[in-house]
Amino acid sequence: MATCSNESSALIGCMRARLARLECTDNVRKAWLFWARQFLEHHHAVMVDRLGEAEVMAFLDALPRRHDLSPAARRQAFKAVRFLLEDVLDLRLAGLEAMADRLRREAGPLILTPSQVQQLLACLEHSDWLLASLVYGAGLRLLECLRLRIRDLEPDRILVRDINGRLVRETLLPARVREPIRAHQEDLKLRHIRELAEGYGGVQLPVGVLGAPSLVRSWMWQFLFPGPYMGDPGNPDAPVLRCHLPEAEGRQVIESGARQAGIHGGVTAATLRNSFAAHLIQRGVAVADVERLLGVRTASTALKRRSRESGSREPGSAPLLSPVDTLAAH
Fold first, then answer.
1. Longest dimension (CA), the chain
2. Is the pLDDT of residue 37 over 70?
3. Would the pTM count as exceeding 0.85?
4. Which of 28, 189, 221, 285 has a CA that sits 20 to 30 A from residue 91's CA?
5. Strand pairing class (157-161; 241-244)
6. What is the model's pLDDT at position 312?
């Protein structure tokens, strides 16, 4: 039976449900659903179980004629189609991995030079500068940075947690940002005290955290980059709690800095994170150490983790210096 409108809608609905269980941004979900719809519409006359590598390639080849896409956007469309085929339709196509490698080589990550990062940061101030400096200086994903709480900051390191509050890795706390963070925390604490006196001061807790009702007002659970207070639309009696800075505003901070610095090409938080990795490797830092800081799980990082857990250290190992600490003062 040909892929009809109802069948396509059902597949998109199933894909939406599966994406909801993944830890990805709303923008990524929307983009993947858009490209999945485009793929199904492009092959509307093909039976679902006949969709294969040839259909994927035909769709990708048609994209430049229908959309003005960069190689990175074309790769994003491929990821969406692959998710539809493998995770929704449960189709296993041997040629997709080779296709992914080719698209990865074509797209390539956008890497800034240290001078460009310096220029971008010089265009930002206060908490905006701090956010961009942490993304670049600690190799954080944007959402990881926005979800940081007071409790996640230690004297020389950052504890990175997932959406449920589970610790997933540790990374550098750059020396350059330690004093600005301390001053930023003092301002936040004064505001928090005032809000507690006014009957507010509660904060949204991670999904997996349960505790006493007073926990939501604890200083240690407050966000480093606080956003607005939000209520629960489904429960009018629920307390109004503060959430972290919205992701869209975080993206805008970095994009605005890049625009003001005259850097073009779609600079994002991922660009700063990629630049963090590239600049460490260029300074001779082992790839396994960079992967560990980024939270990339490979055989080399697993081996290094077991070595640390057994108490061994590499000869001459020294604390890593964050790339942001090597920039000129700003």
1. 66
2. yes
3. no
4. 28
5. unpaired
6. 38
